[in-house]
Design goal:
Blueprint (H helix, E strand, L loop, with lengths): L2 E4 L3 E6 L2 E6 L10 H15 L6 E6 L3 E3 L4 H6 L4 H20 L4 E5 L2 E3 L1 H8 L2 E5 L3 E3 L10 H8 L4 H10 L3 E2 H6 L5 E3 L4 H13 L3 H15 L3 H15 L3 H12 L9
GO biological process, one term: fatty acid metabolic process
Protein name: Enoyl-CoA hydratase domain-containing protein 3, mitochondrial
Keywords: Fatty acid metabolism, Lipid metabolism, Transit peptide
Length: 264
């Protein structure tokens, strides 16, 4: 039975090990205001320690996934460097929470994802987009280069593709986003939910302990040189083999039965 807990800015649904966090301010194009960022941060912190959550889906209400920062809020605080720095630091904190979350995070993208909204998509471990979705880092068009979105974008797509998006500010269609590695899959909007939750369910069926180990190691090794990465991941695998779920998984495979995970 699906449970629903509605926050002011974030809707939270949990079912079968999958928790969906929905940006819920469509009238403001789900912009990442300070309040929205703080609400999302709190939900990510909560779900991080939730043993019943195995996979997180980030979605959005309305026709726009996320239009980036709230420009009205920024305009009202143009003279406050302190506020601006706090805002961008809070946004950076949320993006790092997603990367550091010990559970896989999937972005469900319908509509437009621009600037920090595009950053949000790029920060998720996986992303599934409707074929009508569009992406952009258009800060250059208003004199505010998308410097923080650049961090996530440049770690997901090639340098030249990232630079083209950053320098032109032009919209990128869903199929191009898939080609350059910004999203994993593009599907008809009518089957978007089916595709997202089938993928989430597949992942949720794995050992939570193993997923945690693997996700953490994936991002750590990306920052290493080749030899260091192999040394590091060899140690990770040797340690992983000592886990109860590794023993269970290997035995279940050899015995040709379904494993019974203990998440340890």
């Amino acid at each position: 039975m699906m449970t629903e807990q509605t926050e002011v800015l974030i809707k939270k649904y949990s079912e079968n090990g999958i928790t969906t966090l929905t940006l819920n301010q469509p009238e403001r194009r789900n912009s990442l205001s300070m309040a929205m960022l703080e609400a999302l941060s709190a939900e990510l912190e909560s779900v991080s320690d939730d043993a019943d959550t195995r996979v997180v889906v980030i979605a959005a209400a309305g026709q726009v996934f996320c239009a980036g920062h709230d420009l009205r809020e920024i305009r009202d605080q143009l003279d406050s460097h302190e506020f601006q720095l706090k805002l961008f630091n809070q946004c950076s904190k949320v993006m790092q929470q997603i990367v550091n979350l010990p559970k896989p995070v999937i972005a469900r993208v319908a509509g437009v994802a621009t600037a920090a909204g595009c950053q949000l998509v790029a920060s998720c471990d996986l992303a599934v987009a409707a074929d009508t979705a569009r992406f952009a880092t258009p800060g250059v068009n208003i004199g505010l280069f998308c410097s923080t979105p650049m961090v996530a974008l440049s770690r997901n797509v090639s340098r030249k593709q990232a630079m083209e998006m950053l320098l032109t500010g032009e919209m990128v269609g869903a199929l191009k986003a898939e080609q350059i590695g910004l999203v994993n899959r593009v599907v008809d909007e009518q089957v978007l939910d089916e595709t997202v939750y089938r993928l989430a369910a597949t992942i949720a069926g794995k050992s939570g302990h193993t997923l945690k180990i693997g996700k953490e190691a994936f991002y750590q090794q990306l920052e290493m040189g080749l030899a260091e990465a192999y040394d590091f991941t060899s140690e990770v695998m040797a340690k992983n083999l000592q886990a109860a779920d590794a023993h269970e998984g290997i035995c279940a495979f050899l015995d040709k039965r379904k494993p019974e995970w203990k998440d340890e």
